[in-house]
Amino acid sequence: MDVQQLDSGVSPERLRHEQEQAHFNELYLLAPVGYFVVAFDGRILQANVAGAQLIGVPRGTAGGHRFRDFVRRNWREEFDIFFEAAINSRAPRRQRIEMTCADHGAPGPVVLLASADGSGQACRIVVEPVDGKLAALERSEERFRRIVHCADEGIWEIDALGFITFVNPKMAALLGCEIEGLLEQPLVRFMDEEGRARFETHDVRRQHARGERVELKFIRSDGSELWTSAATTPIFDVAGNYVGTLALVTDITRQRASAERIWHQANFDELTGLPNRHMFRDRLAQEMRKADRGATFVALLYIDLDHFKEVNDRLGHAVGDTLLAEAARRVKACVRATDTLARLGGDEFTVILSGLERVGSVDRIAQSIVDALARPFDLAGELAEISASVGIALYPADARELPDLLSHADQAMYASKNAGRNRYSYFTQDLQEAALARQVIASDLREAIAQQQFEILYQPIVSLRTGAVHKAEALLRWRHPTRGLLAPAQFIPFAESSGMIVEIGDWVFREAARQVQCWQRSIAADFQVSVNKSPVQFRRDGGQYQGWLDYLREMALPPQSIVVEISEGALQGGADALLGRLAQYRMLGLQVALDHFGTGYASLSHLKRYDIDFVKIDPSLAQTLDGEGGELALYEAIVAMAHKLGLKVVAEGVETAAQRALLADAGCDYAQGYMFGHPMTAQALEKLALRRTG
């Protein structure tokens, strides 16, 4: 038994018959002649519009009547013989009789054309009035002509060979042609290569029993594209031979363009035109599958632009966008046409090198990318220099799953950054272990915040003129439950990379504020505490400073009680964004210190640009003071310049009495170092400050 029959309980032959019958009924619904489907017992099962009008009953109630009742009495015996012959014959039967209407009016003589419908349960009867048949056909043709010529949709008809035999004015207008220029021409003549391929794929000339809806592409006479949705219907002659196809055509050019635009926006980066993260992941998955089939390998390059943030801050976002677009062009010139270059977002790019058989080609491409991005960028008359840190992971050697491969390439990229930037690095197992260690630290950091495992030590800052301790620097420590007391260098980088540095920094500020309030009562009313802020905090803390000011007001604490220390390294690559933030701190009344001055990023001429109060000279300079070298002259120059700008100078890293004496002679204001005290608890610092004051 056929599977289809098992599933539905209806044989394929019966299904095919019902489909043909429905199609047949649709064709005859508006026919100018009467059409009836009559059961073998004479009941009317279906009637078209003309048929219902012929017998004088509403079409919806025709099923309540018998067809024989509308045959004149003296013709019924002849009709019965005719009907019996029709339902028992494969060939159609024709008979002339006379019929009447429900109101006993007379439709007059008619010709019946009857045949069994193939289901074995009903008979189809076509009723044609003997008088007025030609007029009915003429009315039908006129109606068809009006519909076709006034239709808001295009209509075309082709013969069995694909030549156009008919088009309506709308179709000609859609193509921008005259009707005469379309007739007897192959339909594919008005298509480009893509359109012909779609036409052949769907092949509307196939001899289907029913039509279908397809999307076809044409080329207008002006060369523009015309996308259409065509409802096609095959045409057969009385012998069942395919003779052509008729199509009802809708212009969908705008809808398709809109859909393509939405698809493009969802899969491509607007700035560079490169595939975005979504498209990149899809391409990478495809290339991984191809590598499995072809026994080749895939190299994933993860590219991060070094110092882009500084260029963006210094020259503005518009220039930064220009740099990104140019960087994309440079990288694209380094890879093969078959490779995929994508922009993940910001200044991060990826390259998928597929179908590789040896690693040497990866080295060559990676180095060419590094070299290309190291060349200066001319950005609207401004020269900018960046570099690239590139991480490489190989499939399947380094990972079998897409997320793991991407993660490993990212780890290798950070290895390049940590090694000095402007280079490429391959993923190794050591990097994976380091990444796992970072994950553990990050998890522990979240726990540390929740469990209050952080504490603050304080290092005194001594006045070189009086020896008093009226200042201190707050130094963060982490009392880890298993690793003991950890210095900032052991966890701050992880806090910065995870973003938790902002929450930790806020806690340090509030703790320092509470402590300085106590010391202003017990030691000196003008006592100050310095808190450190990393460059990451400046980029991520947003409007946190307003919360700080509100907190100081709640405590009735003068804002100048807190000194915000920033590293000189934060000035690298331009300080425009930093200047704005420093100005905000000064407006709030907070004081600012430039830490680690003298390590190379800032010069003496830069001091006047920054809205700061203190300059803290890097410990490396103090530790080389001996009274004879150039370091003392450098100190004297820094102090003189700072004083002329109204700034105070703090020398860091002071460990000997000789260093202290030389710094005092140079005019330095304050000193900080092991000579005066190591980082200590708040209680110990208070005792030290009171003792020195006493």
Automatic annotation (TrEMBL):
Domain annotation EAL: ranges: 438-693
Pfam families per record: EAL (PF00563), GGDEF (PF00990), PAS (PF00989), PAS_9 (PF13426)
InterPro entries per record: Biofilm_reg_signaling, EAL_dom, EAL_sf, GGDEF_dom, Nucleotide_cyclase, PAC, PAS, PAS-assoc_C
PROSITE patterns cross-referenced by the UniProt entry: EAL, GGDEF, PAC, PAS
GGDEF domain segment(s): 296-429
PAS domain segment(s): 140-211
Domain PAC: residue ranges: 212-264
NCBIfam families in the cross-refs: GGDEF, sensory_box
PANTHER family xrefs: BIOFILM ARCHITECTURE MAINTENANCE PROTEIN MBAA, DIGUANYLATE CYCLASE DGCP
Protein name according to UniProt: Bifunctional diguanylate cyclase/phosphodiesterase
Organism of derivation: Massilia aerilata
